[in-house]
UniProtKB/TrEMBL annotation:
<dbReference type="InterPro" id="IPR002347">
    <property type="entry name" value="SDR_fam"/>
</dbReference>
<dbReference type="InterPro" id="IPR036291">
    <property type="entry name" value="NAD(P)-bd_dom_sf"/>
</dbReference>
<protein>
    <submittedName>
        <fullName>Short-chain dehydrogenase/reductase SDR</fullName>
    </submittedName>
</protein>
<dbReference type="InterPro" id="IPR020904">
    <property type="entry name" value="Sc_DH/Rdtase_CS"/>
</dbReference>
<comment type="similarity">
    <text>Belongs to the short-chain dehydrogenases/reductases (SDR) family.</text>
</comment>
<dbReference type="Pfam" id="PF13561">
    <property type="entry name" value="adh_short_C2"/>
</dbReference>
Length: 258
């Protein structure tokens, strides 16, 4: 591996869920390494801020509205990229939701549907659309942001955990079928990370004690930790890697059950 392998100069990268947290950090990191970034999410104002900050730092970026749960938004996003950029080389499926936190037997059906629409259905159809585009231009890389909850379900996070397990399986299926077209598909499985989605846990006053017992590195992950892994998976540094789930969790999985 060389420094050049990590460069993504001129590659068009769509970051779904780029308005904050891991998606924002990934967008900025890829832009620093030469990518033409399309920062997308439901919150266009936040994506405009991310794109503006990338441009101010000397990178190339623009914002796009994209609700992963909307077929119309997904199709429109891919068509706009086809018309304006002519290609798509990197797709990062980072958007996710977890509207219900509680006993799995009490899960409301509308929360179940919303979680699957955003966390599974959206990334699946965005990925299949991206694969069609990448086949036309010689290949590409897709990175699906899953979670360690997909490997070991989180307490009171039943449906969210199920969707993240589905993302891991989806990654393997897409990798098997897209590999012959030089499209690589991998998943990132973050542990507890300092994001808005995890704020209920990261702001818990008992977290320090839990980290000392269960986190080998004894700290919560930062979006930049995950962005570094996304950068690796998106770049040629991982050119012989597909269908894998890269666990970045500070040692949670290595230390056994919480």
């Amino acid at each position: 591996m060389t420094e050049t392998d990590l460069r993504v100069d001129g590659k068009v990268a769509l970051i779904a869920g780029a308005s904050r947290g891991i998606g924002e950090a990934a967008a900025k990191r890829l832009a620093r390494n030469g990518a033409i970034v399309i920062a997308a999410s439901r919150k266009i104002e936040d994506c405009e801020r991310v794109a503006s900050e990338i441009r101010e730092a000397g990178g190339k970026a623009r914002a796009m509205t994209l609700h992963l749960g909307s077929a119309q938004d997904r199709d429109a996003a891919l068509e706009a990229i086809r018309k304006e950029e002519g290609r798509l080389d990197i797709l990062v499926n980072n958007g996710a939701t977890s509207p219900y936190f509680g006993p799995v037997e009490d899960t409301p059906e509308d929360a179940f549907d919303k979680t699957f629409d955003v966390n599974v259905k959206g990334p699946f159809f965005l990925s299949t659309g991206a694969i069609h585009m990448m086949k036309e231009t010689g290949g590409g890389s897709i990175v699906n942001v899953a979670s360690v909850n997909g490997l070991r379900p989180g307490f009171f996070q039943g449906v969210y955990s199920i969707t993240k397990a589905s993302v891991i399986s989806m990654t393997q299926v897409l990798a098997q079928e897209a590999g012959g077209h030089k499209v690589r598909v991998n998943a990132l499985c973050p542990g507890l990370t300092e994001t808005k989605l995890a704020s209920a846990l990261t702001s818990n006053p008992g977290l320090d004690d839990m980290m000392k017992r269960n986190f080998s590195l004894q700290r919560v992950g930062q979006p930049e930790d995950m962005a570094a892994a996304i950068h690796f998976l998106a770049s040629d540094a991982s050119s012989y890697m597909t269908g894998q789930c890269l666990v970045i969790d500070g040692g949670i999985m290595a230390r056994g059950p919480l």
